[in-house]
Amino acid sequence: MSRNKRRKEEKRIKDADLFKVVDSTLDTRTYSDLYYISRKLNIKTIYGAVSAGKEAKIYPALTESEEWYAVKIYYVSTASSKRAIERYTFGDPRFEGVRASNTLKLIEVWAKKEFKNLSKMYDSGVSVPKPIYVHKNILIMEFIGDNGIRAPLLKELRSEDVNEDLYKTIIDQVVIMANKAELVHGDLSEYNIMVFDGKPYIIDVSQAIDLTHPNAREFLVRDIRNINSFFMNNGINVMSETEILTRFIK
Ligand code: ADP
Ligand code: MN
């Protein structure tokens, strides 16, 4: 076998080993994008999905240097996600001029938007998974959990682990997000916060909007209400909405 041919053969064998679980819902194009990313980031194995939401699936991935990543794949999908994307990116100065001509392009805008929001939040000190890479409709970030087992969502925590400290830390994140990153999550609830070693991580930030967005205040208040009612229902003394709102500088 020639050197070149052997190299190709080795690559083929490596590629075949990449997936621990074959996912029949992934199309060929997504598979080949995943091979591309895996080579780029030295990912050796991608495991079965830890979660399949309405618009995205999350897979744990292990690198050659034994680091865990979360691979978020946005579906090339539904009319409802298309509408949501248009609604959220409309009026956002960062996405002006993006005239997505089809759903695939829109999903790619969505992934890129989550990466940008994640980066801005991470750089501002908000507790979010560290963003690693984005390519087409695939986003790679730090894996929140242990050994490929994801951490629980706030919603899934045992009630004795839902405490005032956690509540305060989460409100702090919302404040840092607005004051430092100038972003409002817009879909914050017990379903979009993971808790690992007692520390909250805000996730699912694709729809986060700029503070300058006309609906920013309304979304901020809704986020705070969601958090307050979750903790209130768990018997925690929460701060009043008015008291929390005084902490926002803009
Ligand atoms: P969506 O709600 O649009 O499907 P999310 O970003 O909320 O997408 O992710 C879906 C689920 O995947 C989460 O509820 C969580 O269980 C898991 N998840 C998301 N991000 C990570 C991460 N960085 N590490 C581990 N698990 C994650
Ligand atoms: Mn979510």
Automatic annotation (TrEMBL):
Gene3D superfamilies: Phosphorylase Kinase, domain 1, Transferase(Phosphotransferase) domain 1. One of its GO terms (molecular function) is protein serine/threonine kinase activity. Keywords: ATP-binding, Kinase, Magnesium, Metal-binding, Nucleotide-binding, Serine/threonine-protein kinase, Transferase. It is an enzyme of class 2 (transferase). Residues 44-250 form the Protein kinase domain. It catalyses: L-seryl-[protein] + ATP = O-phospho-L-seryl-[protein] + ADP + H(+); L-threonyl-[protein] + ATP = O-phospho-L-threonyl-[protein] + ADP + H(+). It comes from the Archaea. Transmembrane segments: none annotated. This is non-specific serine/threonine protein kinase. It comes from Sulfolobus acidocaldarius (strain ATCC 33909 / DSM 639 / JCM 8929 / NBRC 15157 / NCIMB 11770).
